[in-house]
Amino acid sequence: MDRLICGDVGFGKTEIALRAAFKVVQERKQVAVIAPTTVLTFQHTETFKRRFKDWPITIRALNRFVANDEIKKTLTELKDGKVDIVIGTHRLLSRDVGFKDLGLLIVDEEQKFGVQHKERLRKMKVGVDTIAMSATPIPRTLNLSLMGLRDLSIINTPPADRLPTRTFVCKYDHDTIRKAVMSEIHRGGQVFFIHNRIESIYGLLDDLRSFLPDVRMGLAHGQMEEGQLEKVMVSFFNHEIDMLVCTTIVESGMDIPRANTMFIDNAQQLGLSQLYQLRGRVGRSKERAYCYLLIPPHRRLDKDAQERLKVIQENTALGSGIRIAQYDLELRGAGDILGEEQSGHIDAVGYEMYLELLDEAVKRVKGEPFDEQPLEPDINVRIPALIPDRYITDIRLRLSYYRSFAEIRSPEDMERIEQDLRDQFGAPPDQVINLLGLMLIRHLCRILSVKDLSAGKLGISLLFTERTPLPTERVLELASRENKRFSVSPDSRLHIRMATITWPRIYEELNYLISLCPKI
């Protein structure tokens, strides 16, 4: 197994990991759980120990919270098979870590591991079942799953009584922050305040204390000493702290149901999936959660930053993680399957062609049947057909609709897309209707194996391939019986006379030819 499990934060990915690990341990094999941060491994260790406390299962942790002598003991017992489940950070990828019989590898938040770490993971994965879990997989990982190189499972069902997190984009303002913090504390909750710059986080803490003097605050970042960081995190878990001022160290896996308000300072500097992951730290109970994306008061944001904030603000529905990841894939590109480059040979052949070639190669390896390269007919008619910029201004939306148009197979498909356009953008102009019609004609040309359809002064001409289902004798019969309408030229083209060349008229003639084919 090499499976990516994609589900929103709090949707139950860890529950799947727990059950899979239990099953593997019952089969007398070992389980390794790898997570990107010390805080996350600490929480996973607590969760696993709590769930398996009534079973004879030995669970150990490998992270910087663990003393050196304890680490040495764990490594020895791991090689002897005395440890059933080990949960660790990148430390698990070190060369001194060995297993007696590893049966399952669980990678939480795989997008957080770099290329070198993934190379080490790949070596560990040989002959070992693997589960990767993520709410917003990086473009390359998602692309591999969409292509079938990895299996993909999506969890769409939210937990019972879960409410979407309300998201606001606002400027850093003392009054706004004070009202939101006090409102959360008065209902018995806790607050995250994210600031991802260690050098300025202490100054921010002083500023927050100046107008929130009665709020119990704690500070957490990755450069703190082990004991100090652990003490702060445990205090926040136990509700001894009202507001945790921290870096993105809490991004992955922190599960504190009481914390239902979050501020993200300088949100324009963070990536799309990172913003989504951070927002997932709140709203993990039945309470309504609030997330404030704070931006500098006197600075203009660049277009990409504005787009990211707009997307994260609009995608608040439960289960939006996969949509965020797909948007990220479109925004950043898929990257290469092998190597460290985010782009490479894909650029040389184009993304669509790359996907088709890859799909064919995957099916060959799996021994599955695959379709031969579909015929792409040339259609040369003097009919204006496009989506005008003024009708759909957003280029990404235009490209999306062009892809939808290419999938038209029937008049019903045309009507559905036309109605969708009408609902969103108003009545479509003639050029759009023409384009819809030409896409339908392209489909009919494929059925008839027409490789060229060209318009002339008196009508249209069709050039067929040898695979056409239209019998030669029927074409010759047409030309002799209806010679004012049909004729065949020396280069084997079928000419159809038309008073006016419009797509409905071409569609009508092609449908008539299809009716003459015995195989269709």
Please, could you describe this protein's structure?
The structure is a single chain. Residues about 340-345 have low confidence and may be disordered. With about 525 residues, the chain is of the alpha/beta class. It folds into 3 domains: about 1-155, Rossmann fold (3-Layer(aba) Sandwich), CATH 3.40.50.300; about 165-315, Rossmann fold (3-Layer(aba) Sandwich); about 380-515, Transcription-repair-coupling factor, D7 domain (Aspartate Aminotransferase, domain 1), CATH 3.90.1150.50. The strands form 3 sheets. A 7-stranded parallel β-sheet has the order 3-4-2-5-6-1-7, sandwiched between helices. Strands 8-13-12-9-11-10 form a 6-stranded parallel β-sheet, with helices on both faces. It has a 5-stranded mixed β-sheet with strand order 14-15-16-18-17, covered by helices on one side. The chain has helices at about 15-25, 40-50, 70-80, 115-125, 140-145, 175-185, 200-210, 225-235, 270-280, 305-315, 320-330, 345-350, 350-365, 395-405, 410-425, 430-450, 470-480, 505-515, and strands spanning about 1-5, 30-35, 60, 85-90, 100-110, 130-135, 150-155, 165-170, 190-195, 215-220, 245, 260-265, 290-295, 380, 450-455, 460-465, 485-490, 495. The radius of gyration is 30 Å and the shape is elongated. The protein is about 40% helix and about 15% strand.
